[in-house]
Specification:
This protein has helices at about 5-15, 20-30, 35-40, 80-85, 90-105, 110-115, 120-130, 170-175, 175-190, 205-215, 225-240, 255-270, and strands at about 60-65, 70-80, 135-145, 145-155, 160-165, 275-280. The protein is an alpha+beta fold and about 290 residues long. The strands form two sheets. The chain has a three-stranded antiparallel β-sheet. Strands 4-5-6 form a three-stranded antiparallel β-sheet, with helices on one face. Residues about 50-55 have low confidence and may be disordered.
């Protein structure tokens, strides 16, 4: 297939490799973007592609956390202009939609949100009539567990929910736990991990990474056991990029997130874990 300038640009944005290298990789891969990424990585010309989607449109991320901090909601509400996104009516809509989803609980589904007769679309229709601009509810996520913390960044363009396991009773109100929850949410916002822990990384993803690392070592005439040791070492860097607990803290790169969790656990006298997290950015599609 013909390799277009747009395809080359997209690959370059994904990998940071040069234009000519990107074009050559796409040509070799027959236009397959993911295969082209692997070709560049094998040649040492790119890191793993980040899972950032393409940003389109305007809007804001709304949030809701229950008074007991045991449930939280993030919701993306889209509109046509940033001007409308900053109006009091649009801001009120976001809060109300997040609260509606929280109140619905497990009944909140994409179909429920899209129901023209439901509470969400009724609010949306009224706001459209008032502001004269198309408005839609995009993605949403609801987390419920021992403790949930929220962080909204970039003036409402990015939101994060983090669910902490083990944060129950008095421990949930401990200053160290409250601080940790906020820090973890900020970490997810800034470092964009894909998994909460190593155990969440799918086996096929790990094997794919290993295959890339083995391909990088081809022709070096190293013993098989040495190659596997090097491969496992390289996986450590992969974990630091993609796994929350392995990431270096955004506050102090010398301190891994796992150490932050251990310190808060000790201070509060409970074993804390990151059960789940969610990160929504306006216009960003899952990659």
């Amino acid at each position: 297939m013909a390799i277009t300038a747009e395809m080359v640009k997209a690959l370059r944005e994904k990998t940071g490799a040069g234009m000519m290298e990107c074009k050559a990789a796409l040509t070799e891969a027959g236009g397959d973007m993911e295969q082209a990424v692997d070709i560049l990585r094998t040649r040492g010309l790119a890191h793993a592609a980040k899972k950032a989607g393409r940003t389109t449109g305007e809007g804001l991320i709304g949030s809701y956390v229950s008074p007991d901090q045991r449930a939280g909601v993030l919701v993306e509400v889209k509109c046509e202009s940033d001007f409308v996104a900053r109006t009091p009516d649009f801001q009120a809509l976001i809060k109300d939609v997040a609260a509606d989803i929280a109140e619905a609980g497990d009944a909140a589904s994409p179909a429920w949100v899209a129901d023209p007769a439901g509470p969400v679309q009724t609010r949306v229709a009224a706001t459209i009539a008032k502001l004269g601009e198309n408005i839609g509810v995009g993605r949403f996520v609801r987390l419920a567990g021992d403790m949930v913390a929220v962080y909204i960044h970039l003036g409402g363009k990015l939101g994060v929910l983090v669910e902490l396991g083990g944060a129950t009773g008095a421990a949930a109100q401990h200053e160290a736990v409250q601080t940790l929850a906020k820090e973890l949410a900020m970490q997810v916002a800034a470092a964009s991990p894909q998994y909460a822990s190593r155990s969440e990384v799918p086996a096929d993803v790990l094997e794919h990474e290993r295959s890339i690392y083995r391909a990088q070592l081809e022709g070096q005439n190293k013993p098989a056991n040495v190659i596997e040791k090097i491969v496992e070492g390289k996986l450590g860097s992969f974990y630091q990029q993609t796994v929350l607990t392995d990431q270096p803290s955004i506050r102090d790169p010398k301190v891994p997130v796992s150490q932050m969790i251990a310190a808060a656990s000790k201070a509060a006298g409970t074993e804390l874990t990151v059960a789940r997290f969610a990160r929504l950015k306006v216009g960003e599609s899952a990659a």
